[in-house]
Specification:
CATH architecture of the largest domain in chain B: 2-Layer Sandwich
Largest sheet of chain B: 5 strands, antiparallel
Helix content of chain B: 25-40%
Radius of gyration of chain A: 18 Å
Number of strands of chain B: 18
Helix content of chain A: 55-70%
Strand content of chain B: 15-25%
CATH class of the largest domain in chain B: Alpha Beta
CATH topology of chain A: Cytochrome Bc1 Complex, Chain D, domain 2
Number of domains of chain A: 1
Shape of chain B: globular
Distance between the termini of chain A: 49 Å
CATH class of chain A: Mainly Alpha
Structural class of chain A: mainly alpha
Shape of chain A: globular
Number of strands of chain A: 0
Number of helices of chain B: 14
CATH architecture of chain A: Orthogonal Bundle
Order of helices and strands of chain A: HHHHHH
Structural class of chain B: alpha+beta
Oligomer: heterodimer
Distance between the termini of chain B: 24 Å
């Protein structure tokens, strides 16, 4: 049993390692973007649940009247410029974010994450 | 938009100072370009794009105490005012903007170490850049058996919220975030590092447990004040309870509010309940223009209010009671509360709302609606101002007008009238209706609070609301109420209302200010305290 587990661990370790080697800079950036997004943005923009109506998500649902997803991470029409504009300027009750919170590299990563599913 | 210079500092001196700041903390952490510095303007400024808008000249982001000390020494050399912010999320009360244009913001966000969390003795020690989310995640990740008490929203700094007398939602003294602190570390105007409470004793083992140390306590000078830059603070934490239940009492008549408050005060001050949440089911009727006109008549009687409630089968007032503790005791306390309330208020009714056991799974935490009652930080408060189906044309923020009133039903009725009259005198509709109820974050006082809207584009609306804010301060003071917190544009006026014996309190603090910060480098104007050479700036 122990031997089986060791083999599984070894194989999965090799798989992970080869996967990591295959990861593109863009994939790494998207992964970082998700992390920064989850920390700074998802607290307002995550998909709403029955008892947690995320204010950013609900605001965008109301704005687009259902024609676009309310949760930002589900959008496929955002551009890096749009993301940058709103992070650095804010909108309505959302304030702007400073560089000690979201630096320029973080912002690029967030943009990469939010535009990952855009059609070319 | 051109950025202001610090007062009485030339462009050449400013450039020289920035050079020294760069040497001290690194070029990357000195922000002086317009696009970077404007990120520090108050997102909810009522003066946006007007000549009086409070703007910094630059921002600095140190990463440790030594860098803060270096910044303070350079600021003294050039007599440049510094405005420290922990995370700059004090929205509605100024955000990260200084009281004096041209000040340099010292942004402490990078100082974000959680130094200690003890779940046996129930305290933590943190740096200013630690948010409530950070502290909460640390506790959850390490499966520690303590709760935090967080404000709305939860992205602000534990230290910063405390230093503006911020408040929360759980149990008793934990809601008073400054009162609940225990010892601090401060960089003084001469660059020295001071520790208060037990932190003042080298090798002390009780920094987070005993707040007074020995001799006079000076911690209060650093909250809503400008005597130093706080770089660490201890806070008491609440042990994770076994259980929580909440239930609502509803009372039929308008005047029932008086005995309701009295009994709820008893329950709270004996430690039986946590934060009580008052409400008025009749408040929704204000959206109907005919009813609104009816209830806003100056001669409306209590009998008419009662008929309004009875005709719609609505309670006049409600109060949610929250119980924390052992699973047996929360139920017993809920039953005891019902007995006491039923004896005092004929016709009151009760409803059990929620029962929870702890620890909760992340899924259970996500499913809880009233997260703040359980010390779970969230951003859900933004729902109140953001666009929604009920609010299709949202504003761009708000100014919190937050008036401390006595903890009685009579005071609530009086405050409704005081503030309705102030609105009426300006020809504006009342912000506080006859159904306005108090908030109960403070353990021993009520707060009548409202967010007056601000706009990024409508300067006339901003002027109107500034005028109303000032009128509220004046009307409140005449009635014996004072604000507990205020945006920078109004801090002088609020400070002015605390004027007993020819402003002796302010004269006392300003005497100390001149002695310990002779160049007036720390946050001139904060809390209404101005250094000698800038005192003419007082509005």
């Amino acid at each position: 049993m122990k031997l089986t587990l060791s083999i599984v661990a070894l194989v999965s370790g090799l798989l992970m390692s080869s996967h990591a080697q295959a990861r593109t800079p863009e994939a790494t950036k998207i992964q970082k973007g998700k992390k920064v997004y989850d920390y700074w943005c998802a607290t307002c923009h995550a998909p709403s649940t029955a008892n947690s109506k995320y204010p950013g998500t609900e605001a965008l649902k109301a704005k687009y009247e259902g024609s676009l997803p309310g949760a930002l991470a589900q959008r496929t029409d955002l551009s890096a410029d749009v993301v940058k504009y709103f992070v650095r300027n804010g909108v309505s009750v959302m304030p702007q974010f400073r560089k000690t919170e979201v630096d320029d590299a973080d912002l690029e990563a967030i943009s990469a994450y939010l535009t990952r599913n855009n059609r070319p | 938009m051109s950025l202001p210079l610090p007062p009485n500092v030339s462009q050449a001196q400013f450039a020289a100072a920035l050079g020294k700041f760069r040497d001290a903390i690194g070029n990357r952490w000195v922000f002086d370009s317009e696009d970077e510095v404007l990120l520090y303007r108050d997102g909810y400024s009522p003066l946006r794009d007007e000549p009086e808008e409070l703007l910094p000249s630059a921002a600095l982001a140190p990463q440790n105490v030594e860098e803060v000390q270096a910044i303070v020494r350079i600021a003294n050399e050039f007599k440049i005012p510094l405005f420290p912010v922990s995370t700059g999320k004090n929205l509605g009360y100024g955000g990260s903007s200084p009281n004096l244009s041209g000040s340099i913001v010292v942004d402490l966000k990078r100082m974000n170490k959680i130094i200690e969390v003890d779940d046996r003795r129930h305290f933590c020690i943190v740096e200013p850049g630690v948010s409530y989310f950070d502290l909460y995640r640390h506790i959850q990740d390490n499966k520690l058996k303590v709760w935090i008490d967080c404000p709305d929203p939860g992205w602000g700094s534990v230290v910063g919220n405390s230093l503006d007398h911020g408040v929360g939602y759980t149990y008793g003294h934990h809601r008073d975030h400054f009162g609940n602190h225990c010892g601090m570390e401060v960089v003084l105007a001469n660059g020295e590092v001071m520790r208060t409470g037990m932190g003042a004793m080298p090798g002390s083992k009780t920094w987070g447990e005993y707040k007074y140390g020995y001799g006079p306590t000076v911690d209060g000078l650093f909250a809503q004040g400008n005597f130093g830059i706080v770089t660490k603070m201890g806070f008491w934490l609440m042990p994770e309870p076994e259980a929580y239940i909440s239930g609502t009492v509803s009372v039929p008549k308008r005047q029932d509010l008086i005995p309701l408050v009295d009994v709820v005060n008893y329950l709270e001050h004996t430690g039986t309940i946590g934060m009580p949440n008052y409400g008025s089911p009749l408040d929704v009727l204000m959206t109907d223009s005919e009813t609104r006109e009816f209830v806003l008549r100056p001669d409306i009687t209590d009998a008419e209010f009662d008929r309004l409630a009875a005709d719609r089968n609505l309670a006049s007032w409600t109060c949610e009671l929250q119980f924390y503790g052992a699973k047996q005791s929360v139920k017993a306390n809920w039953e005891a509360a019902q007995t006491r309330l039923a004896a005092a208020i004929p016709g009151c009714t009760f409803k059990l709302n929620n029962e929870f056991r702890f620890p909760m799974t992340p899924e259970q935490q996500e499913a809880v609606h009233q997260k703040n009652a359980l010390g779970i930080p969230s951003m859900l408060i933004f729902s109140q101002g953001a666009r929604s189906d009920l609010n299709p044309t949202p504003g761009d923020g708000h100014l919190w007008f937050a008036s401390v009133i006595p903890k009685s039903g009579e005071a609530i009725f009086e405050a409704q009238k005081v503030y309705a009259k102030a609105s009426h005198e300006l020809g504006l509709p009342p912000v506080f209706s006859p159904f306005a109820f108090p908030w109960t974050w403070m353990y021993r006082a009520f707060v009548m609070i409202s967010g007056l809207p601000v706009s990024r584009t409508d300067m006339d609306a901003n002027k109107r609301n500034r005028k109303l804010f000032s009128a509220f301060i004046k009307a409140g003071a005449e009635a014996g109420y004072g604000e507990y917190r205020a945006p920078p544009a109004f801090q002088d006026q609020v400070s002015d209302t605390y004027s007993f014996n020819s402003h002796v309190l302010r004269r006392f603090t300003e005497t100390m200010k001149d002695a310990v910060d002779p160049n007036g480098i720390f946050a001139p104007g904060r809390g209404g305290i101005w250094p000698k050479h800038l005192r003419e700036k007082r509005k």
